């Protein structure tokens, strides 16, 4: 499932490829992934031109003219791909197909759940999912002080809050592993027990790992609009490296299963 860096890469590539192009037609092949009846969805987007493409957490947000937003959530195994004019989409695979003013096509595929929503002007903050998203971890106002405030009195495990999209938007079970390792924090530490130095290390680790993810083009399962894959997996420190030596101390990385998610930790560095 794509996380902040993966969506950053996708949104940046969408911005480069789509900016200034107009939606000439839209074909909805899976009505449940759009937020209007298919014909209403088509009418809402056809004739609109792509402006800036940005993100909120795991959502790519393409601004269209007139203040509308095309909001994409890829769920699992989702792809947003540019295709040539002469290619023919398989309607059982491509959930939504946009034909663009230069003849190219934008195909949106989900393997498992995903959303293609059109949001009218001024309604992003009341959108049922986007409106509930928490702090943007790369925003200027996400400071160590703010993170400390957010964690105050929280008695649950620190990892739980990092993965909670209404708390911080965009971190998932891939990038969280190295965030906790760089911060030298055990995933099950109660959040309220972190002291000022812990929170500062955690804040720095969030920024560092998300920036690394962006630098390496995101994860291997994720792709930009042209299909380029990321290589972040080649740069993981402890994530998904059970039995391999911790890069800091050499202790073998251990796997820790809690609930439905697995954590990868150095039992020496993360206490
Ligand atoms: Zn270690």
Keywords for this structure?
10 strands; 271 residues; Helicase, Ruva Protein, domain 3; alpha+beta; elongated; binds zinc ion; four-stranded antiparallel sheet; N-terminal domain of MutM-like DNA repair proteins; 24% helix; 6 helices
Textual characterization of the structure:
- The protein has 271 residues and is of the alpha+beta class.
- It has 2 domains: 4-132, N-terminal domain of MutM-like DNA repair proteins (Alpha-Beta Barrel); 144-265, Helicase, Ruva Protein, domain 3.
- The chain has helices spanning 4-18, 38-45, 144-151, 158-163, 175-182, 196-215, and strands at 23-28, 50-56, 59-64, 69-73, 79-83, 94-100, 105-109, 115-119, 254-258, 261-265.
- It has a 4-stranded antiparallel sheet. Strands 2-3-4-8 form a 4-stranded antiparallel sheet, covered by helices on one side.
- β9 (254-258) and β10 form a beta hairpin.
- α3 crosses α6 and α5 packs across α6.
- The longest helix is centred in the last third of the chain and has 20 residues, at 196-215.
- The radius of gyration is 20 Å and the shape is elongated.
- The chain starts with a helix and ends in a 6-residue tail after the last strand.
- The model has no long low-confidence stretch (mean pLDDT 96).
- The structure holds zinc ion.
């Amino acid at each position: 499932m794509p996380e902040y860096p993966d969506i950053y890469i996708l949104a940046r590539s969408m911005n480069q490829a789509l900016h200034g192009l107009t939606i000439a037609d839209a074909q909805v092949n899976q009505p449940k992934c759009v937020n209007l009846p298919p014909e209403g969805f088509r009418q809402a987007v056809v004739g609109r031109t792509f402006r800036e493409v940005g993100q909120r957490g795991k959502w790519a947000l393409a601004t269209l003219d007139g203040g509308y937003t095309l909001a994409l959530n890829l769920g699992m195994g989702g792809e947003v791909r540019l295709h040539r004019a002469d290619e023919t989409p398989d309607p059982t695979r491509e959930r939504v197909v946009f034909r663009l003013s230069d003849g190219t096509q934008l195909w949106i595929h989900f393997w498992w759940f995903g959303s293609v929503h059109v949001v009218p002007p001024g309604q992003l903050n009341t959108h049922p999912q986007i409106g509930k998203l928490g702090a943007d971890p790369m925003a200027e106002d996400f400071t160590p002080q703010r993170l400390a405030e957010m964690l105050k009195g929280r008695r649950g495990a620190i990892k739980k809050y990092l993965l909670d999209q209404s708390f911080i938007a965009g971190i998932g079970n891939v990038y969280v592993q190295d965030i906790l390792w760089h911060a030298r924090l055990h995933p099950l530490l109660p959040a309220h027990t972190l002291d000022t130095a812990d929170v500062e290390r955690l804040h720095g680790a969030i920024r560092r790992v998300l920036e690394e993810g962006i630098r390496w083009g995101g994860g291997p399962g994720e792709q930009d609009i042209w299909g380029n894959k990321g290589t972040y997996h080649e740069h993981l420190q402890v994530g998904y490296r059970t039995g391999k030596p911790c890069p800091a101390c050499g202790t073998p990385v251990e796997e820790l299963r809690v609930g439905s998610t697995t954590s990868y930790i150095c039992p020496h560095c993360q206490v």
